[in-house]
Design goal:
Largest sheet of chain B: none
Order of helices and strands of chain A: EEEHEEHEHHHEHEHEEHEHEEHEH
Largest interface: A-B, 30 and 26 residues
Radius of gyration of chain B: 21 Å
Distance between the termini of chain B: 32 Å
Number of strands of chain B: 0
Structural class of chain A: alpha/beta
Number of helices of chain A: 11
Helix content of chain B: over 70%
Shape of chain B: elongated
Helix content of chain A: 25-40%
Structural class of chain B: mainly alpha
Number of helices of chain B: 13
Strand content of chain A: 25-35%
Radius of gyration of chain A: 24 Å
Shape of chain A: elongated
Largest sheet of chain A: 6 strands, mixed
Strand content of chain B: under 5%
Oligomer: heterodimer
Chain lengths: 302, 263
């Protein structure tokens, strides 16, 4: 659905996007993570044919950026960083304008469908300027969906929203995911990316890494298991540390932090060895690093 | 065509909900309609006084303009012509605010990016915005001029009316004036897409009125005598300039620069 090859954008001497190469499949929810000024919005603008790449190629929905711009604009939906609504016009009028510009066949039908779906039907005749931030964001999402795009670009969809509004927007994105649309989300809300995205990319001018969040954790830290003991853990290190399947063992207070690839297979052996050595195991759990840990490590490396 | 209509309707819906803009559109025509009518009434009531006060050799000065008319009638024709010239300026002044705000206003309201992300061409977008700015100004001017012409019919003599409402003035108001409006609007839209502040766009665009003001000053000072040839000449020049400016507005509209360089 989306394929880029060495996609590059320079503004005068400022390199905003450096040789971005990635491929996003149909129905995939793809998180594009990066700090402010990383070039995320520039990438979205290139992929939606709003600006032209300096070098490289991008194919979106089978259409090539720079050559088939009209077709790209016709078939993708975009939620821009700020809603950019016409504040003096009603919600209905805002959507009607865009439905017509997107050449929607049944304008009133589609407008009604999305106003109802996003819970704005009762407020359809109110000026958009009177809406709360959450409602404005929902209206902007409705605007991006009127022409039923198979690919949707969401630039910071929950930025600046209160937790309740952010949850509403996230729930709606999950609904869209269920409809099999390809969704490209730019965000620095890592919890959101962790929950919504099939794969994430960490990006800061150039691509740092792309994988599933699980894959990223494994790549960065491997799998880690923590054994909580009733006593100090150091004396029990010799009982296990020479096992060939271990990648790393560390004793911290009364915990043994063990990195290994296949805990399901090797945990029983470890437990047996520790018990034989006299350890009193209180409980065993897998240590999960947050996406934030991974993100910060990658961004700081950059 | 449907997209152009959508842009026009969108512009009007936004503009006419803005009381300040509405005031700008309505105020000038009201003044320019009331002023000549009041002047004509006053002139009629004080015809004798005015006649004696004007007895300063103006017949010779404006001889070419109203040969065969009395001094009083000539003065009335002269005044009516000046007002008609003002009606030519009117549709140029009205839409500049709307047009100047059209692109830079969208940018500052951050509504331009979603708009440019739709499958609308630059031509459709700009033509829609230009028509939206031109039509109200032209219609209001025509209405104001008709009220003025009807009032004049009842307030001045047949001779003066025939002289002051020559076909060339109708041509000026109903043909040249809309062309001048388009000129001002296309300059305003072009400026609007090149600057980052609506106020700058408005100020720069208003400069289009200057040549017209010079025309009024020239006529009132007796330096230029506006006749059919001058009106036709202006019409042709402005029509050509319109075509060039509309083309240039579309060509100079840089989506990328507007989206990325404006903050």
């Amino acid at each position: 659905m989306i394929k880029t090859d060495n996609l590059t954008k320079k503004f005068d001497d400022n390199l905003a996007v450096d040789r971005l190469t990635l491929e996003i499949g149909e129905g995939e929810v793809f998180g594009f993570l990066g700090p402010n000024g990383a070039g995320k919005t520039t990438t979205v603008r290139m992929l939606t044919s709003l600006i032209a790449p300096t070098a490289g190629t991008a194919v979106v929905n089978g259409f090539q950026v720079g050559r088939d711009d009209y077709d790209i604009r016709r078939t993708v939906g975009i939620l821009t960083e700020t809603p950019g609504l016409y504040d003096r016009l009603s919600a209905w009028r805002n959507l009607t304008i865009f439905a017509t510009l997107y050449e929607v066949a049944d304008v009133p039908g589609q407008v009604e469908k999305y106003l109802r779906m996003l819970g704005l039907w009762e407020r359809r005749n109110d000026e958009a300027g009177t809406f709360s931030k959450g409602m404005r964001q929902k209206l902007a999402i409705a605007r991006a969906l009127l022409h039923e795009p198979r690919i949707l670009f969401l630039d910071e969809p929950t930025s600046g929203l209160d937790p309740e509004a952010a949850k509403l927007v996230r729930d709606f994105i999950e609904e869209l995911k269920g409809e099999g649309r390809t969704i490209f989300i730019c965000t620095h809300n890592l919890d959101e990316a962790d929950r919504l995205c099939d794969r994430v990319a960490v990006f800061k001018t150039r691509l740092r890494v792309v994988d599933t969040t699980k894959g990223l954790r494994q790549q960065m830290y491997g799998r880690q298991v923590v054994f909580h003991l009733a006593e100090t853990a150091v004396p029990y290190l010799p009982a296990i540390q020479n096992q060939p399947y271990l990648r790393r063992v560390e004793a911290v207070d009364n915990k043994l932090v063990i990195a290994l690839d296949d805990p399901e297979t090797y945990n029983p052996d470890l437990i047996r060895r520790l018990v034989e050595a006299g350890a009193n195991i209180q409980f065993v759990g897998e240590l999960r690093h947050s996406l934030e840990d991974i993100y910060l490590q990658l961004v700081n490396q950059a | 065509m449907q997209k152009i209509q959508t842009i026009i309707r969108k512009e009007w819906a936004e503009v006419f909900k803005n009381r300040l803009v509405l005031f700008t559109v309505a105020f000038l025509p009201l003044i320019l309609t009331a002023l000549p009518v009041i002047t004509l009434v006053v002139t009629n009531n004080y015809a004798g006084d005015l006649s004696s006060s004007m007895n300063t050799g103006s017949t010779e000065f404006f001889g070419a303009m109203c040969s065969g008319l009395s001094e009083m009638d000539c003065t009335a024709v002269y005044m009516l012509n000046l007002y008609t010239l003002m009606f030519m300026i009117l549709p140029v002044a009205i839409p500049v605010t709307i047009a100047a705000y059209s692109i830079v206003g969208e940018k500052t309201a951050r509504s331009l990016e979603p708009l440019l992300a739709t499958p609308i061409t630059t031509g459709e977008l700009l033509v829609g915005k230009m028509i939206a700015a031109c039509v109200p100004a032209v219609v209001v001017t025509w209405l104001a001029f008709l009220i003025y012409a009807i009032s004049a019919r009842f307030l001045v003599s047949d001779v003066v009316f025939a002289e002051a409402m020559k076909p060339m003035w109708w041509l000026a108001i109903f043909v040249v004036s809309p062309l001048l409006t388009l000129l001002a609007v296309s300059v305003a839209v072009m400026v609007s897409s090149r600057v980052t502040d609506p106020r700058v766009a408005e100020q720069l665009s208003a400069l289009v009125i200057l040549p017209l003001i010079l025309l009024v000053v020239g006529q009132s000072a007796g330096l230029i005598l506006i006749n059919e040839q001058i009106i036709l000449f202006i019409g042709v020049i402005v029509a050509v300039a319109d075509a060039i400016l509309v083309y240039l507005s579309v060509k100079l509209f840089q989506r990328e620069a507007i989206l990325t360089r404006w903050k």
